[in-house]
Fold these 3 entries.
Entry 1:
Amino acid sequence: MNIVRKDKLSDEEQQALWDGIESFTQPIVGDTGRHELAFLLHNENAEVVGGVQGNYDNFGWLWIDSLWVSQGARGQGFGIKLLNQIEGTALENGCSHSHLTSFSYQAADFYIKQGYEIFGKLENYSKEHSRCWLKKELALHSE
């Protein structure tokens, strides 16, 4: 046996970790399932200027890993639209809750305005900033 440092996992290596965790977890709580979700925002030149990605499981939880909108596309409601897309798709697939993490200097306030609440915080994670864990009960969005 040997331990090898990796700066980035291949898809196969990441899948091996997930499969290993699933094989341990399944006898205890059943099949967790893992369904990837991603929505990209493209400009008129087909360049990616935003997106959201995450996954949901068989326990009814959506995990939002990343949401980003480029500086030039901010302030036009695209962040809310991307968030609504991923939440709505998760809701359609049986999810009732969502969770994510953000830094106090990033988008914590944005998520709070969208109905998320902070349930955990590490103060001074980066100098005077905090790392926040947020959750939300999902509901149908009216557009």
Entry 2:
Amino acid sequence: MDPVRRTDELVDVLGAWSTGSGALYRRLAASLRGLVDQGTLVPGERLPSERNLAVALRISRTTVVSAYDHLRDEGILESRQGSGTRVCSTRAPVRSDGWSANGNGNPMYRNLLHTDDSVISTACLRTPALSGVEQAIREVVAEDLPALMAEGTYHPRGLPALREAITHFYERQGLPTHPDQIVVTTGAHQAVALVAQLYLRPGSPVVAEDPSFAGCLDLFRDRGAEIHPVPLDAQGIDANGVRRAITELHPHLIYVMPSYHNPTGTLMSAARRRELGELSARHGVPVLEDSAYTGIRADEEPSPLAAHAPRGAEVITVDSLSKVGWAGLRLGWLRAPTEMALRLSRRKVLADLASPLLDQAVAVRLLNGYDQLARHRSAELREALEHMEQLLRRDLPYWEWRTPEGGAALWIRLPGASARAFAQVALCHDVELVPGSAMSATTDGSHGEYFRLPFAFDRATREELVWRLARAWRELDRHGPVESHPDVLVV
């Protein structure tokens, strides 16, 4: 049976299709042609109807009809009586587009490969380097370089000095750790990927918070795992929901972000961490604790989940310096029970042999001053958050959000509107948004009224961003009504 492309899926993979110049139908045709050429749309795949795609993209049906006609003339699309418009079945198949085998690449990652300076993209979080990073690099060059240059091995598990520094990092947080429990990785993303490779296979049930970080969900889906969502409350992932999932599904992995949840910024309570640790020990279900989403930090942050887990619990803790120090420092790590750390280090060797020693030497110095670095980043982002909230209250007063306990973004709820629809209008104002449905562990459009709004821009960009968003919000009414406030009509 030929594949059928859902309308919302096609909208997501089209991305920022409407930016650029030329007639709108030609821009849409060019984007669709690109999806066919790169293998995202395959021969025989049926596309949405002109009407459905026009509604989803917030454009006229005539524009979609013209784009489809243009591609039919080029032999890229074909129409069959009674079965709609399809990618021409006689086209030679091409290789995979390179994204997840069970997905199409979430908007955050697609944005890394396609940039447009005229567009303000909110798809990825920004982490420019703090001054302490430059200082650490200079110190490594001045003092550590001769010893590094004399190294004669890759150190697949990580530079010994760095594994020792990470051990002390956890011990300061109340989590006794041995260097043999540490595997250094090329960013936290690789650490999660290694865990997925070791623990998951096709059909593996994975319990995850809903919403969750789309990038990690893609890693699990790429392994063929089945994601089972559990909602959040004020203390973190719902413990009763986790218990039910364990009883009914016998999951191979539980994935959580206790400090701090991405995208909501929720800080999981110590009691909830203890509950999850006890569930892991009682039922033998491993927990992947992703702590890489840092930025703003609460004054009182509980110890890592692993520190609250009883003996016998299998907790893998992942962290990174990218969100604290600099996004360009692709240096992360995982902490796991010794035997699992050994197994994960074997996956690391298969992935890339080892992470760069120079980066690891910089990380040693940064970890020795981590608390000061984290305070600096937190203060910087707290100021940015306050400014962003002021702008939103002034220009978009009926949008809803909760001030996050940590992280680097707001989780915005749009009253009476679809975030996917608003994203299409925002593109016309040169703003790229990631709808909340893209960060859902479900495929039913959950969190469709939400989107993630990072605030780690410079002051001028924040002001321009909110100005563009306010214009887009006013324009949305041209394509469909927005729920009005009792006192003010939002148009």
Entry 3:
Amino acid sequence: MSASAPPVSTGAAPLPASSARLRPLYFARFGFAIVWAAVLIATASLGAPLLSVLLVLYPLVDAGSVLWQLRKDDTASGSRVPEAINIVVSVLVAIALGWTSAVSVAAALAVWGAWAIVSGATQLITAVLRRRSGGQVALIVSGGISVFAGTAFLIQGLQGATTIVGVGGYAILGGIFFLIAAIRLSILLRKGRA
């Protein structure tokens, strides 16, 4: 997989070669989000330490996925800055969630909300900058929804929420948007091979 691999043509504008590598990542992120949300929803009432592990795991997987995406991207787009910010913020949030989830659900929800705002904004910016790769409209919408959902989580946390199950629904919705992006990329790549 050299950086000089030819772009995949879709009949209109050619897709960058990195588009084919984004598709399995998007499918994997969908699968992880669904499984993670199911486990969170089923076990949230048990509290720490399982809740702490789950809450720390999600942003770490997000950071790892974005890092993998950065390393596999053969385009010289300006999207690297928001992605790098997302990685750093996700790692810091994982640490903060490990601590706050042992303190209170409300504190953890507030941290999650702040992270959803920042990661949603960076996802939105990255998807706009990466729109030539195909399948990015779903991720643009997802990033925008993440900002709004994050604001709601932050407010709930600051108001002393006693449950964090809502982040499971947030993860499911985010996973569905990754599935839509993966399917859209699959269609574009199939057309490019025709």
